[in-house]
Protein 1
Amino acid sequence: MRAALATLLALAAVLAPATAGAAQPASLTDVEDEVMCLECGTALNVSNSKVADQEREFIAELIAQGKTKQEVKDALVAEYGPRVLAEPADDGFQLAAWLVPVLAALAGLALVALTARRWRGTRAAGAAAAEPALDPDDARRLDAELAAFDR
Amino acid sequence: MRARTYWPVTIAAAALVGLLAYGLTTTGTDTTLDSAMAAGKRVAPPTEARLPVLGGDGAGSLGDYEGKVVLVNVWASWCDPCRDELPLIEKTHRMMSRRGGTVLGIDVKENSGAALDAVEDFGLTFPNLRDRDGSYVREWGQTGYPESYVIDRDGNVAAVRRMPVTQEWLDETLPPLLGEPA
């Protein structure tokens, strides 16, 4: 219970600044790294082409109007289409950018599970091999001594 | 390699190779139009997509100019060679509009405010559509800016110019097409 409460509090602490920030007016540096220079194919914050300058001007105008980050991004999508955002599209070849990490993670998990299973099997077999079978006489003697000890 | 791991690893490797091949074939430049032009053929436009009208409501497409010779000009105000070319394109539009033709501008990858400023600065009178992210011109096998495509009265692509137009090229290309019956 305490652990769950602590987790909730930690999550709230992490998410609170993010949600508070969403309503604040955007800044150019905050938006630039989440937007693409459409012609250069790089993030806007590392692009120096004329297209990038024009996109920056457009963003700066919206910021001057007091728009929030989300409003700026929405306006960018309305003007330039969804590809202007620095996240892959969810169709066509770009769908692979979403699918491959998930598939790779699943493959990794399967590999870990397989390795762990094999490792446990090897350890159990090793442990069994390391312990020699008890001689029947010794077993009888052990039982007798344990019984005497219990008394 | 043990038989139990052989097939999963082989299938995963084949899937990766397939993904790479798919990526290469879908992101490369389409040269279909150039091959057709080199063979002297007229072909249907690679797309009939409708695009937003610049400075207006709704959408438009090449289909709206049926029966006309259309000089499709790909431009953007951030592209210096496009700006250099625009006065000649406007002059050509005025000539074509008297002879059953038109220029159709395709403004690419810029916000409508910047594009409309250019329309005003250059006194452009031809209609313009907006290719917001460049996906329309990619279907035409676009390689740079500016580019021009000429559509004949039957709606087929008759010429492609993958660089700024010149008066000489326009004089060679347009009059024969404008002279063709609809």
Protein 2
Amino acid sequence: MTDRVSHLARLGLLLALATVIHTAEAFLPITVAWFRFGFANIIGLATLYLFGFKDALLLTLGRIFLGSLLGGLFGSPAFILSLSGGVCAIVAMGLVHRVSGRVFSEVGISMMGAVFHNLGQLAAAYLIIIRNEAILLLLPLLLLAATATGFINGLAARFFIRHFQNTSQTDHPRKT
Amino acid sequence: MGRSRIIATVIYNESQDDASRIKNFLSLMSSQAGGFQEKASVLFSTVHRPSTMHNVISKMKKNNYATPGDWALVGSLLALSAILFFALPGWVGSEGTLVEVRRGEKIFGRYDLDRDRVVEVPGPFGITKVEIKQKRACVTESPCPHKYCLHMGSVDRNGGLVVCVPNEVILQMGKERPDGLDAVSQ
């Protein structure tokens, strides 16, 4: 019972953190329209490692809904892109995490997530928003950006996971 | 005269070889300086203090920040994006069948790409020659001062564009949307 409660509380904290990062990232002064660091994915990846795929998917969906509500973008094309990219990324990360074993560390999984985030976004942009083949020309640039941001986020996620586990052990003596 | 004593601390960054080289040099110096007197004794202590970059790298190695699989993924992604960067422009867009030549605001003519021909378009500077050859369209001669339109090369895919601003000549591949828009975002 206490385990379930603490699990829920932790998940709530992670969701709050992810939402804040998601929203705060929109304020970064980056002029390139299609480029984003995707820092919120750090929390998604950490949740995947700490609590498993279901919770990570739930967190990502919650983060995107709450984040777009906060940013005033709910239901806009930006929201659709965010949703498709986010779901694609978390599903890809979950699959790779389950299948690959120890081939990839958090860094590799994070890069996979970043790449599939961009692929999902591009697919949604093409299918729903702009039916113009020219946007596919962005693909190489998106892949390049995804590799870089995925690497950085992966490292950050690893630190986050370690720190989270350490604090969990010290702060939460299990009494039954 | 008592024994003079030199106390030296050698701080080395990368390898212990550097430290021992400095040690040898110092003891040589001290033996020459104190040659006619008693030999100076040198007390050495060595401290390993890695440089920052070295520190970061050794830390990364020790903590295994990225597995070989990760690095392989980085490499393959970089290679893939490089390949796509050069290959994609050739794949994207369907092959054009029609080129539209505009002179200022007006449509000068629409030409089928299947037939090779040269079209002469008169503009404010003179005559711009547009050539259609082997399903490609380009500007071959222009009276404009900078000749940017010549350097824009030829186009063969829908959406392709060659523009000569001074002479007000525009080549555009493919049909326009029926509503005259490039794309619609809903």
Protein 3
Amino acid sequence: MVDQANKLKSLSEAASLVDDGARIGFGGQPALSRRPMSFVRELIRQGRRDLHVFNMIGGLEIDLLLGAGAVASTHCSYVGLGDLGQSPHFQAAARAGSVEIEEFSEFTLVASLRAAGMDLPFMPWKTAWGSEVVSRQGWKTITCPYTGVDLLAVPATGLDVVVLQVSRCDAAGNVELPATLELSYDFDYLIARAAARVVVCAERVEPIADPTRVAMIAREVDCVVHAPHGAWPCGLGGEYSPDIEHLAETYLPATRVPSDFLDYLREHVHGRDEPR
Amino acid sequence: MSTVGVDVLMAVAMAREVRDGDFVSHGSAVPLAGAALMTAKALHAPHVDFFYDGWVTPGETDLAALALDPGLARRSAIAFLSQAQIMELELRGGCDLQFLRPAQIDPLGNVNVSSIGPPEHPSRRFHGIAVADAMTIVRRICLYVTEHTPRVFVERLDFLTGVGHAEEDRWRERLGVTGTGPQLVVTPLALLDFAAPGSRMRLRALMPGASVEQVREATGFELALAPDVAEIDIPSREEIAALEAADPLATRQLEFRELRAGAQARLAAHAARS
């Protein structure tokens, strides 16, 4: 029986739950906020490969994984770095054709995750009809048995694992809502509910006093990691801002030359002193 | 040539497409569309509602102020909906108008917001589809582009992200969707609609100073003409004043390649002062 009261694991134990070739999802919004960057760095330190990465607003977590050569395919409706512009490794991968890029819209990704979260094989849907978003993925249409209208059947996207970075959860895995709600705050819970396993990295692991502020309950969470400042160099709403200086003056310049990025990984990923 | 800037002409032409009482799905990072929306709200559409990063109809309508102070929308808004809730509202047919700026548009108003060149090895790709597929459900779509050239108006898209008036819209009935597709394209040279036979694109009006020949040469396919092509009404003093009040730093110019650097410098200087 799972110990529901205590799911605390170290960062390295939690990251070892992710296999090579796993389908892994993230949340967070905007592109430089609420990303489980400590966890992503640990995946890279452990040499994880061939990941299939999912997010609605893909950001720095995907750029870093791509730059480390850990990604086989992306499945997002946006990959970029927000105010800092395009994601350099995503752009390079797209031009080179070196990773598979499955195009989702926000609508079709939500449809697909909703289906998975309710254990349905597909979701009948009304956007994206007739586009290459649909034809390239071979999605089919169905006829409604009641009204006769045609609907797009968006197949369910089941994930192996979803990793979130949050402000606070308790050791059992009850996750508190963010202090300030951002546009896509609840996407985190939507994608988590489509996954076989959920890892929550929290700034603080402590009891949540107000039960109405619990967004996901312990039974929906498999593993809790205490990861203070775990979104760095991204920010976390209500906690800290993105480290724009690091991103603009260290990270982005390093993405321009492959050997420089190896140096970046050596210093800021493999060499970073963070609790593992 | 008109002395009114192209950003003003386009913002005002787009503002005229907003109807009073519309619920507008307004994306982030599209300041020209935002300026048009706020201008309409100040003039002929006081009852318009819109989302700004999930905040419903903030009382503050100065776009630069909203962009620079993340708390301002919250302090002046009526309500908050998450993106997932906004999507459901749109799926129920609750949104009346969306402005959308594609990279390519074809004669039927199909759009590409994804990539340029072969999809497997694009010469240029964008950050992703985001919500461009809402073209099927938002009641009216107003497309706009800040470059009117044959590389934007193409016979064949490099990637079909969103469907316009294929099959003369018969598919819309079959799917039971609420959207009527793109109604208008606003460009630096012209207004284009889809009233030619087969729901094909047609030149409806010219921006001041532009000619029919110039528009046809700048369009990469045969463009039909409305029977009475004329210049649009030049922006009135009231329209220009409302636009200046809504967008005093001219953030709308961020969407024009030739005006972007100036707008960025202006915003940076303003941010440094405040």
